[in-house]
Give the backbone structure.
Amino acid sequence: MHPFKITTLTAAALISLGSGHVLAAQPSSKEVQSLKGTVEDLRKQLQSLRSQQSSNTSALEKAQVDELRKQLEELRAFVKKQPAEQPTASVTTTEGAEGESQESIDARTAASKADIQGLRTDLENYKYDQSRLQERTIPSVTRNTKIGGTVTVGYETRNPAFKAGDSQTTAATNSAPAEPRSSGFRAPTATLNLAGNLYRDYGEGRNLTYRLALNVGTTGTNATANSQVNLTDAWVRYSYEPSTGNLEDRQGTITLGQQAVPFGLDAPALDPEVRAVINSALFVSGLDVGTRQVGVLVQGDYDPYVDFTNNYRAPLLGYSLGFFNGNGPNKNDNNNARDWIARLALTLPVDYTSWLRQLQIGATYYKRSPTIAPNGATTTTTGYKGENNITGFDVNWTHLPYSISYEWARGKQELSPTTANLATNTDGFKRGLGQYINFGYTFGEQFLNSSKQQGKFDDYWPTSFQAFVRIDTFDPNLSSKVVNDKQYRNTFGLNVFFAETTRFQINYFKDRNQANTADLPKRANGLQAQFVAGF
């Protein structure tokens, strides 16, 4: 090889290596491309020199050529380490096209290793904070438990006023006299309940659940400043039909413990959170069907009609069959006989768009076995088993915004064979009859299934209104020897639902009683307003 050519080739290689240091300091796409071109020229010159090299090339020239080849390989390795040329659009990482949003620019900006490591650190810190929060501020239970309850507060007026010393005013004594009360604030009840799963069947959905509920209520008088705490619900429930959440599945449960008796429509609605009218129907207390009992209850339905579009489910047939002690809540039984109740409810199998949607017809039979005092004796503590049979019929039609419900109940109760009882009821049985009809109109979004499916911000809930009129009558004794004992009550009300679990109720009632006694004046009216706040 000619020495001049070797020198020139060596100088070019050195210049390229020098340029490589500059690139290493701050490489750019144009410099990398130029460096690649220089390497390609050197490769061509090396091939040309090899072809011109004669067999008698001196050892010095061979050494120079080997040195040059070594430098060329180092240069080629350096070029391979440089980043490939990026498209023009990727080079601009912080500047986007005109009108491009910052979110779009951020979406195509690659995260660095430091960014990923910082995100991992933040997640670990969050996990630690949540763990400490649960340990220090959140109570824990052994099984899945949901805590709920209500607080009821309100104001009422009544004309005529409650007399001094009766059950709705103060206890009157010489040292603490009272006066008639026609109005005042009230905090009648507060409830607390716990519910959850005792056993979850993940295979078939035959779960075991429980409920425990307490009611804290005022005594009605101020003889003492204490409230009464009573156990209301205390039961365990087994689902013998799969409870997987599929609307097309039948429902069936067995409930054991203290619970409400499923007589008709109005009587089972004992808790404030499920009552549309503040006062119960007159026959509920008159026939003594509005109490909880201790026993076992089987409930379920058959052949449900389902409209998934509107999240609507209407079983063709609903059934209830229960056996109870019959002596009331929070007490053992006082005889060996069991009360039993049977109820069937038929819902018309029509489409969701039909005007007959949710038209339900129900019938109930309740056979009770109370203990009767023999011959009206007041000194003996041993009685005998009596009879108390109650029959009910109800119709309910709820087609928003309209609703109509009607309920009829008739009771036949055996009396203690005293002279006074036999004088008015010669066969020893007192028969009572009560009925009511309720018309309602609801406007607002809360009860629409479409609204229930929508996402809501924080505690937002659409406000809804429910106006109603109830006409209620009750005759406590149908005997022809007992006259002027009928009771009438008309109620006008409005319910305002402004939160998921909280509502405001205002009822105006007007009573007319043929008995015209101190407890049942001939005419009475009143206004009741209350908040029922649930949690």
